[in-house]
Amino acid sequence: MKKKILFSILIISITMGISFCFANETIKVGYYENKPLVFQDANGNPSGFFMI
To answer: Which is nearest to 28 in space by CA: 14, 46, 15, 16?
Structure first.
């Protein structure tokens, strides 16, 4: 049982370490006009129900 817990902690630590290495990557996301769900507001920013 202890081996499983330690192995799980090891895997989680490695995964988090790898993800932090790539945290400074830029991700471009596109969207389409489908008002009122997703649209561009007056300032040119994405807006709508599905935008966070």
So the answer is: 46
Q: Is residue 48 part of a domain?
A: yes
- Count CB atoms within 10 A of the CB of residue 12: 10
Domain count for the chain: 1
3-state DSSP call for residue 8? Answer: helix
* Domain region containing 48: 25-52
Q: Which two tokens stand for residue 47?
A: 């807006």
pLDDT digits (tens, 9 = 90+) for 1-52: 888 999 999 999 888 877 777 767 777 888 888 888 899 999 988 898 877 6
Strands (E), the chain: 39-40, 46-47
